[in-house]
Amino acid sequence: MTDRKMILGMQLGNGYGTQPTAWRAPGVDPSNYTNVDALVRYAQAAERGKVAFLFLPDFLAQIGEGHDHEAPMLTLEPMLTLAAIARETERIGLIATGSTTFNEPYNIARTFKALDVMSHGRAGWNAVTTSDPAAAANFGQQIAPRPERYQRAHETIQITQALWGSWQRDAWIKDTETPRFVDSEKIQPINLCGKYVASKGPLAIPPSEQGQPIIVSAGGGEYGLDIAGRYASAVIGAVFTIEDARAQRNAVRAAAERAGRDPDEVKFFAGVMPAIAPTKRAALDRRIALGEQSFPGRVPYLGAMLGLSLSADDIDQPLTPAQLAAARPNPGDPRSARALEVAREGWTIRETLAHGVIDYHPTPIGPASVTADHLQKWFEAGAADGFWFSIDVYEDGIDTFVDEVVPILQQRGIYHHDYEGPTLRENLDVPGQYGLDPRV
């Protein structure tokens, strides 16, 4: 038993699941792309498992060429989706992605704090820069150089937080006898002007039960670490080994210390994409069915990961002894070592792909205990404070995770049996903040 408890979050996207063909899976309504009720139902299932937050990635140019067989991977619009979910849930956190590149601070401050108030203190903002030229084209712009984008991000986050604090905590009097609604002296303009963004303020929204939304970061590299260290309460990571995860978590904590913060104020979440079934063979077959259309096109990419020339014609054959002898992990792709390990076990190319070796996060394959073992091993190794899990098919996969993986973690004493409190800050175990953090 340990006093330290793992924190879990769940990716939520298009109404189907994270596998490209989830929209065609058995039991899935192919109309769920526009069915907010389905997303609400999935959020409620996650809440039943005491999941701390939903995480909604977002891109400002979802649909490209050649995707006529696959559904867009994201919700129609994250903030409207979470507003609907907020009305039908009580404890689960609501984290949406919002670009600092193509939004003004006042818009961000208003929408996220309104969601925070509506949800009684459960909102979080994943503050990201945008580097996709297709997204820029949707705004009639071009992508600025990285230093400029991140400088704008710093200004946007600081002005947003100042706006959140511009309605002071005790400004709302609500005295019907006086009568006096607010103390206007405690709702003041912020008058902040940076090089790229500015706002006069104030924001006409009072504090929520947690004060204001938390800041989340999903960026990497030197610039992303600076954002995370200064402002974030949670960092959404993409790592493939315990060693990489531990290094990233330590880098985040060091960045927080450099900013004058306690490193325990920032929680690092590693991603996981479990394939859960009663047996490993059944789990592989599930992923093979979901990858029926996509796997052949991934064969050349797998070859590039291993330094081989592979053909889709050989997808149902294992690598030959000569290929295995010649294979070398691509040093530029952290997934390639795992891909070679799986291939050396004798699986066919299709089965190797079904192990998730080209997925965005590690993929435990087999019974629920395999996923639980993966999470426990990483957690106890200090590689993460928690995990954000991405389910292949929401319709049955979320219930499977909640009903089979969560009880194992609870029995092992590393996952809570109930929420720590009603707000996201309490369930992430991060300190309160209102307005700008004076330390940074």
Keywords:
single chain; 440 residues; alpha/beta; 8-stranded parallel barrel; two-stranded antiparallel ribbon; 12% strand; globular
Describe the structure.
The structure is a single chain. Helices cover 38% and strands 12% of the residues. The protein has 440 residues and is α/β, with parallel strands linked by helices. The strands form 4 sheets. The chain has an 8-stranded parallel beta barrel, surrounded by 5 helices. A hairpin with a 4-residue loop joins strand 7 and strand 8. The longest helix has 19 residues. The radius of gyration is 23 Å and the shape is globular. The chain starts with 6 loop residues before the first strand and ends in a 12-residue tail after the last helix. The relative contact order is 0.15.
E-strand count? 14
Mean pLDDT: 95
Largest sheet: 8 strands, parallel, barrel
- Return residue spans where pLDDT drops below 50 for at least 5 consecutive residues: none
State the secondary-structure class: alpha/beta
Write the layout of secondary structure elements.
Layout: E1 7-11, H1 36-48, E2 53-56, H2 78-87, E3 93-99, H3 105-118, E4 123-128, H4 133-137, H5 146-164, E5 172-175, E6 180-182, E7 192-193, E8 198-199, E9 214-217, H6 221-231, E10 234-236, H7 242-258, E11 267-272, E12 275-276, H8 280-290, H9 295-306, H10 321-326, H11 336-343, H12 349-354, E13 365-366, H13 368-380, E14 386-389, H14 394-411, H15 424-428
Parallel strand pairs: 1-2, 1-14, 2-3, 3-4, 4-9, 9-10, 10-11, 11-14, 12-13
Antiparallel strand pairs: 5-6, 7-8
